[in-house]
Amino acid sequence: MKKILVSLTLMCTMFSMAQEKLPYYEIPEPSKIYTAGSVAARMVDGLGFRYFWASEGLRPEDLAYKASESARTSDETIDHILSLTTSILKYLSAEEVVNSKQMASFDDKRKQTLLNLKKASDILNKTKDIALFDNNKYPFWNLINGPIADAIWHCGQLVTLRRASGNPFTTKVNLFSGKVKS
After folding, report:
1. What's the pTM value of the predicted model, to 2 decimals?
2. Taking the CA atoms of the chain, what radius of gyration do you get in angstroms?
């Protein structure tokens, strides 16, 4: 009997680990205080929510799809979004950032992209004076109109590509509220 209980416990633990909850299923509650950091963090949260749902449930045929011979596949677009989120995080943090070029699986790339965005949002939410980041090579403005805006743009491309490959974007997501309909 003990062996059965231990086996069941182990299986439940493994199942829960496999069902790891990634950030941005819904947009987190917003800050009650408007600062430059909290507004920038909310932009990143909006990107995270859009990416979560643009990439949720992609099949191998979706990942391989591209609109034309000269276009990127969905998987190549995901690689690009991951590299953009890595750039965002490197700009905001002195910590070592995971090398995205070492990731082969879609699930790993998706998870790392979402974790990068969550970490960037957390850093921004704690920052009242964004000008502190301007000691880098570029001013903070470039982060907004560069990798943040670019990643949002490419999330839209993922949605278009998944529709074209026969796997439309879910209707249970409300992009305005950042919530999922029951």
Report:
1. 0.86
2. 18
Nearest to 84 by CA among 23, 160, 145, 175: 145
Measure the N-to-C terminal CA separation of the chain; round to a whole number of Å.
40
CB-neighbour burial class of residue 96 (10 A; exposed 0-12, middle 13-18, buried 19+)? exposed
CATH dotted code for 2-180: 1.20.120
Return the SS3 of 174.
strand
CA–CA–CA angle 168, 105, 86 (5° rounding):
90
Question: Has residue 74 got a pLDDT over 80?
Answer: yes
Distance CA 180, CA 157 (A): 21
pLDDT digits (tens, 9 = 90+) for 83-138: 999 999 999 987 777 766 777 899 999 999 999 999 999 999 999 888 888 766 78
Query: Residue 58 has what DSSP assignment?
Result: -
Helix (H, G, I), strand (E, B) or coil at 180: strand
Please name the helix (run of DSSP H) or strand (run of DSSP E) that holds residue 147, with its range, or none.
Answer: none
Rounded Cα distance between 128 and 27, Å, is 21
